[in-house]
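Q: How do we represent a protein-ligand complex in a form that can be generated token by token?
A: Start from the inputs.
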Amino acid sequence: MNSSSTRLYNFQFICLPRSRSIKPSLPVPAGSRLTLPSLERPAAHCRANRHRPLPEAKGCRGRRKSRGASLSARADLHGRQEVLKWNGWGYNDSKFTFNKKGQAEFTGKRYKLSGMVLPALREWMEKTFGASLDHKTTSRASLTLSEVPEAVVNEGFLQDIIAAGISYSQDAEDRVFRAHGHCLHEMFALREGMFKRVPDIIVWPACHEDVVRIVALACKHNVCVIPFGGGTSVSNALECPEEERRTIVSLDTSQMNRILWIDEKNLTAHVESGITGQDLEKRLNEFGYCTGHEPDSMEFSTLGGWVATRASGMKKNIYGNIEDLVVHLKVVTPKGIVEKSCQGPRMSTGPDIYHFIMGSEGTLGVVTEVTIKIRPVPEYQKYGSVVFPNFERGVACLREVARQRCAPASIRLMDNAQFQFGHALKPQVASIFTSFLDGLKKFYITKFKGFDPNQLCVATLLFEGDREKVLQHEKQVYDIAAKFGGLAAGEDNGQRGYMLTFVIAYLRDLGMDYYLIGESFETSVPWDRVLDLCRNVKERIARECKERGVQFPPFSTCRVTQTYDAGACVYFYFAFNYRGISDPVHVYEEIEFAAREEILANGGSLSHHHGVGKLRKQWLKDSISDVGIGMLTSVKNFVDPDNIFGNRNLL
Amino acid sequence: MMARPMGSLHFQKDYRSKKREVFEDILEERRQSSDLHYAMKCYTPVLYKNLTPCKPSAIKAAVLTSDQLQYVMKQISLESGDPLEVIQEQAAEILDEMGHNLHMGAIRLFALSLCKIFKKLFRKVCVNEEGIQRLTQVIQEHPVVLLPSHRSYIDFLMMSYILYTYDLALPVIAAGMDFMSMRIVGELLRMSGAFFMRRTFRGNKLYWAVFAEYVKTILRNGYAPVEFFVEGQRSRPCKTLNPKFGLLNVVMEPFFKGEVYDTYLVPISISYERILEESLYAYELLGVPKPKESTSGLIKARRILNDNFGSIHVHFGQPMSLRSLASGRIHRSQYNLIPRHLPHRPSEEMQSFVCDVAHEVELHQISNMVLSPGVLIAAILLQNLPAINYSVLVDQTLSVKDLTESFGGSLDWPDSMPSCRVVQSSIELHSNFINTVDGQVTLLEYEQTGDPNKELIFKSAVSVLMCASYRNQMVNLYVRPALVVLACKISQSLKKVIEYIQWPLRKSGYHLGTDTSYEIFKLFQFLRSVFTKEFIFFPGFEEKDFEEGCFLLTKCGILHLTSHEIIMNEKGASAALFLSRMFQPFLESYQLACIYLAMDVCETFTEKQYVSGLRNFIAHRILAGVTKCYEALSSDIQKNTLASFVQMGTVKKVKSYPVNKDSHPFFHPHLGFLENGKTRVFFIYQEDCKYQISHLCKFLKYRYTDKNIPTPPIGFLENGKIHVFLFSKTNLNTNFQAFNIFCF
Ligand SMILES: Cc1cc2nc3c(=O)[nH]c(=O)nc-3n(C[C@H](O)[C@H](O)[C@H](O)COP(=O)(O)OP(=O)(O)OC[C@H]3O[C@@H](n4cnc5c(N)ncnc54)[C@H](O)[C@@H]3O)c2cc1C
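Then emit the structure tokens for the protein with flavin-adenine dinucleotide bound:
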């Protein structure tokens, strides 16, 4: 493996110089330095890893079992739980609040928006949702441990895990932390309810061999294993099946986060599956590389999670989606290890077995190591934005860009409601936030009267490559845009748009404090149906809300986030004010259900990248045919006859 | 029976608006203020919320450049070898020919002249304003399709006039092409939004493509409400015609292909106290070609202007959401796998859906029709030819009025007036065919003395058909209870016949068990299936129709139900008689058609030949004094009989493929003889039918006594021609046994 063409890097934890930073808005996770292992040790020696429990650590584990688990011990060992919210999105220190003056602000220091006041947000919330600062709900302050379901202990398994020297925990907080992803009802359960079923024990394998051992033990003792990556799932994939009577083991991959080698000749890197997106990029950057795979959740989601869900990154136009990036996979299943014997870039060897794994959503085994393509960090990056008179023209432009196959690294088109929403997030002061609308107003009055502020929509662009090519490319795209009535609207607006994607996820928590609940969902659809689908889904949501007694019209908006030769990915945000509704989560779910039906009826897919999980299972059969289900079932039955990987996703 | 997820379709009464709606006379205001002022009023109709405003020319351009039409044009060009440009030119011409135009000036002129004309012609034009309010709302939310009943050319003039009056967008109307030749009127109509469709363009692929795309483009844009007639044409017999599906398919497509969020269908019932075209229709039904509409003809029609046509009621029904109708029934995703611009045949599922919706629309139309006293009088008079005593007529009209109301019909009955005045003024209104002489009410020109000849028969027939066209306005309201009554009567006479000839029950296969209600239901089912083309039944809802019939009859005390039996009450006898006699002409017409068919059994014929042959046959029978069923001369009924025979498999429509040998043999299963060993009797409850039955049977007997006759003679095939089906050998014997019953 360690041939002459492969160089092993000794990773030092150096922050990239600001100037080189591709995504300046990306924060450095506080806990990451503690948990990043060094690559000095070859993988085979991982048993000597300091994360392996030392005798003292064993003692520590013994304590953890008893009620008084020491927080610091856990933080040392497992990091992220300490810096992340237990009942919401993202870092503890970053959140939207209303200050004493009643103005919204975003706390913390991690993001560009951090520490800024957003004067328009409050009014937007009031106007859009009829929300009011006087009507507040509050989450419980901390987990009520007594409500956490009792752990089902499989003594034999536990003893074997201890004997194998694998880190584990039975602590209630640890268990609840891994009992969910980020669906609305899951957040609700954390804030004011409880899950019916949570994992009974967490294990932290430190390397591939640990996983092999854990899976063998799981088979031996017939316990259920649920792999847990970044926990960002939005498809109920992590939810523990209520009816599962066996012990549920949450296999947390976070300790498997090393880059094992980088192969510059072939531009690949071999990486453990538990690494998060931001760590992966940061550390590859240090050596002048990147994967370019940037899902919006990349701060927290993991390489293994991407493979397991068939994730898609914002810059797929240049780098490809996860299925384009994966060169080799190593997967531990109850039947043994699945992998291919070489790293040929393409093979005709029957159906691609990796495609059983990509999108398997933790139902077949654990992805432990991935060889992934890497690229040199681009020399130059440029943001951009275009305003269109209306959404129709915008979509037509994106379609043309796709036809000419000249899509920039990223191109996203927001509808009018989202454009207005973007405005609500305008901070009080900041150079890059020079008022867009103000500039635009001038535009209107002078040249471009006829753009209706209630119709216009914006596309944000991100170009990458060498400088000259980027500039050339930029011109090409703006020329096309001009044909569809699009006007260049500046780099700042573009950059702001991308920055916001990381912050928007935090907004839901603020909303939930004020009776606003919401969620996003996505689909992919052929070009000719994009407009119809967007219109009908939005309309359906509005009508379903009305029928269910939602008093204010909902916020339902969409954007086209990806372009393909034959279609596009469309992403919806949907939120509403639930005051006066007794069971908001249920109402929300009914509406999301209706919206998904509408999507399917309009030729959209069940999912472009979020996956099926348990949330969309009921439609899978219609989506892939009975025989298709049969094919998946027979693979599952062969690979995992005892349903060890029993999270019950997909099938 | 499989439950259809079509919601709570139970009874006819469900179609009706829950409470009686109030009608406003819109002419009243016009009689009091200036017409010119009205025509010049500020006209700012409410618009569809997603409308992108555009001119008719932009619509036309959109049609011509649409993927759909482009595709078809390329297809045609490939098939025909004509260059694409030529086809495109043709398409543009077609579009110009049918396309509408919209000129405010024309609309105002149009409004002005219509209001003058209407004031002359009609006493009142009444509109349910609640319906208008509902319409106003949906027009803003969704593309809307207006579906009025069609009894007269006045229909679409009236529709546009009303919409203008209420400040609603003028509809774009898919109207028949005959108007094109009426220069001025045609152009005026066009400029106020009508567009035209050739009556027949079957097989003209380009025409259809242009037309369909035009309609869809208008709907997608929400440019204006689209209006057309589910009945397809003006109903000459003034009885709701069986629906046509082509246009309905077209207007539904944008919804099913996801191009619009929803589409609303609005059933509209237009009821005339007196129909402008009444005599014209009678001639047409008797096979006299109708005079081509022309403007000069219309001017001649000025004479009409001095006539009184009573009042009109226009009821705007509950708008029906296509989305709700289709929910759970049609998966829009079935269109996911083919590019949406490709033409395709609607799936079977879709066809049955469209068929159901069409029926639902018509049932709504029917239940919201407003019946005038003249309708009741016509019905009574037809049962009492040649004459009825005036005061008896008044009495009967009153009891039919009660009956109609308890069946849920809406009547326009001036309660403030004494009933004899009501009857009197109705008779006056219809004085062109009803006559009062010496206290006897008669039908004008009916069976005048003299040697019976074809001409006299013809004259009588005109009167009868005119009169029938009024009665026909109520038959669909009455058909369910009436068929139950008929079924009861048939069951009774069957019992008698079987007792009389002591036919071993087992052998006959006819089980007159204790459960007569089941037997009656089976007979009802049979009658209903015979008459599916004649009356409007919701497809498949046999049990519900039966239940409804029984329910209404019980409600009126005409019959009562025990656990196994349906019993006719003595005191309901006269009402029952009225019901059965109302449908007697239909029964008889179908019988006559059967006999005719049996006599002509080996022929292959076209519909035209069938109609003229049958007409001659019936005329002869009338001449011979065997029947008095003038209504059987109506080409409408004749065509329906044929359609019914086809549907029942008695007659088969043949294109260029061979007759399917496994299909139903002649007279199997429904026309009165055997089905699965069970006797089906259809004709024998009335005394005067005996002859026909036995005649028919004798005829058949004569023909088929010789068992050596090889399997039935013939089955000629020719394009588009209809073949009569033949006896199958296997059924020959059993058929015989059945005939024997009646050939005593
Ligand atoms: C704010 C936000 C933005 C998002 N944006 C994007 C986006 O842009 N693009 C995108 O594709 N998705 C996006 N997602 C969805 C989510 O981030 C992806 O599905 C991601 O791939 C999940 O990775 P994870 O590591 O968090 O996996 P988890 O959520 O922990 O797990 C997801 C599923 O994968 C299984 N799994 C995890 N790791 C492994 C493994 N090593 N082996 C086997 N199975 C495993 C789990 O059992 C589970 O079924 C977003 C989610 C949020 C909340």
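Residues 1-77 of chain A have pLDDT under 50 and may be disordered. Chain A touches chain B through 13 residues (CB under 8 Å).
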